[in-house]
Amino acid sequence: MRTVTLKNGDKVPAIGLGTWMLGDSADSYESEREALFAGIEAGCTLIDTAEMYGEGRSETLVGSVVAQSDRSQLYLVSKVLPSNAGRPHLRDRFYRSLERLHTDYLDLYLLHWYGSVPLSETVEEMEKLVAEGTLKAWGVSNLDRTQMEELWALPQGNNCLVNQVLYHVASRGIEYDLVPAMREHHVTTMAYCPLAQGATLRQGKGLFDDPLLRALGKKYDAAPSEVALAYIIRDGHTIAIPRSGKAVHTLSNAHGGRLELSDDDYARITERFPAPNHPTPLDIQ
Predict the structure, then answer these.
(1) CA pair distance 70, 276, nearest whole angstrom
(2) Nearest-angstrom CA–CA distance, 246 and 35
(3) Which terminus of the chain, N or C, has fewer Cβ atoms within 10 Å?
(4) 202-232 pLDDT, tens per residue?
């Protein structure tokens, strides 16, 4: 499994485990737990969740796995809703998340998206948790270039570790101006929906039907999804968090974290799915 080193020195797997829409159904609960356990065993030890996902049910699902795992080997990420990101709600919501996750600290806590609470207040509350030792680091999600500039202008704004944004082979708008700015500030990209879940690609076909990705999959004895993941994490500074409720798919995603394409094949994907040459609105799903 390839890894990414964050600016605080933490080394995390380039492929993590997303949990959006997991934990909602009793019928799939056990298979989703098995998928998380399989992912951890395969080296995908970063688990991303949020208080919003299933109104806490995803955190509860993750917590049931954490309770039966070696916590020291996991990197747990959760997110706070913008409406709860100030005084006094952030602190209360943070500890509710800890309880659901069966842990006494979080490795990373993110502002889910830009809201009405001033960023200065959110940063202040995050830093209080870091000072207490219950939070290791904080970051943001779904912030565009302008919003990140506002964040970096704050006294402790450069303590932001990651920005979690939608990013996949057919949605590369962040590469124009957001990613270069984040690289200057050593902020890591965390890609959600890296397999274009719920999206369509060219000519109405889905990601797994794309001819180039299918051809490269055959060449490397890999699924098209694995090729797509390998492309997204190609720069060594990006973490992808695909979500799956089935162990077989989780293991396939983990394989994508070990797959290395040739420079020519990376270039072929770049040509087929070109990034825009102008600023574009941030994709959000």
Answers:
(1) 43
(2) 5
(3) C
(4) 434 577 889 999 999 999 999 999 999 999 9
Find the distance separating the first CA and the last CA of the chain, reported in whole Å: 27
Query: What is the predicted pLDDT for the residue at 75?
Result: 98
Answering whether pTM is above 0.85, one says yes
- Residue 13, preceding peptide bond in cis (omega within 30° of 0): no
Amino acid at 281: P
CA distance 112 to 116: 12
**Any idea which residue has 């994490």 for tokens?**
233
Alpha carbon distance 95, 88 (integer Å): 12
**DSSP designation for 2:** -
Cα 197 from Cα 260, distance rounded (Å): 23
Q: What is the C-alpha to C-alpha distance for residues 143 and 19, in angstroms, rounded to an integer?
A: 20
Q: Strand 11-13 relative to strand 3-5: parallel, antiparallel, unpaired?
A: antiparallel
